[in-house]
Amino acid sequence: MKLVKANLADFNTVKNIINTTIKTIYPHYYPTGVVEFFLTHHCDDNIRKGIEIEMVLLIDVNGIIVGTGSAHENEISRVFVLPQLQGLGYGTLIMNRLESIIAKGYSEIVLDSSLPAYNLYINRGYSPFKYNKIITTNKDILCFNIMKKAVVRCIDGKINYNNRLFSSVSNTHNGEVSSATIFQYHQNKDMVWAEYNGGDILKGYLIGTSDDKSNLNFTYQHINQKGEIRTGKCLSTPKILTDGRISLLERWQWTNGDNSFGHSIIEESNIIKLTYPIVKSNAALLCEMFLKKTF
């Protein structure tokens, strides 16, 4: 099994994978007008143009091409795996390679998500940040989310924590941070700081430094729901998860109250500040997970 770059000689192979997947899978999720829109969008000219100017990959399994995917600048598109071979990990292999290509030159990856692929992208660390829709020629409506994922890029071999959101996944009983607590990190050179709130935390701040291995050493303070001011210190060790997100393994101690110690884990979160209204009709909510180019 290998991934190879497509050229114009592979046009018919790429076209067959795209058309077969659309005609077989999409009618289960989309109205006829939307299926026809996808087939028109992935027309011969667009496929040829993609092969010429994009990084179009093919996955070869024992001499048989079973899937394709494309990257252009920081965008992933046209990821398709033959219907009878879906669920075997081929799409994951394509995504892994496309993401690694984009990560060499960009700080985030964007894509348009379909309904069937939405959970796959969520599990890979993507978050919806823009809602869009297209009205097809027969008035069927294609609704979809544009999604993005931050690339864990290193500066001088170090993780850059700037503008990353984290949420708690575990904590010892004497801690006050919970899964409802969201941290927004910032970084300038070796200085790192964050705001956090949610759950038992009304408002909190932390400030510290990042060392040569991207470990964080900081102090924190917050006001809890009881109106108490709590202070502490923490050492955080980073770990890169399989989906590319950052996990921080934390050893902390209160510096007021009982001065007890604790352990916690926070992970880079899929939660983002939405750029479109949160209140929508049921139809709009159902539409939010559609796509125009991928899967």
UniProtKB/TrEMBL annotation:
Residues 1-152 form the N-acetyltransferase domain. It comes from the Bacteria. InterPro entries: Avidin-like, GNAT_dom. GO terms for molecular function: acyltransferase activity, transferring groups other than amino-acyl groups. This is GNAT family N-acetyltransferase.
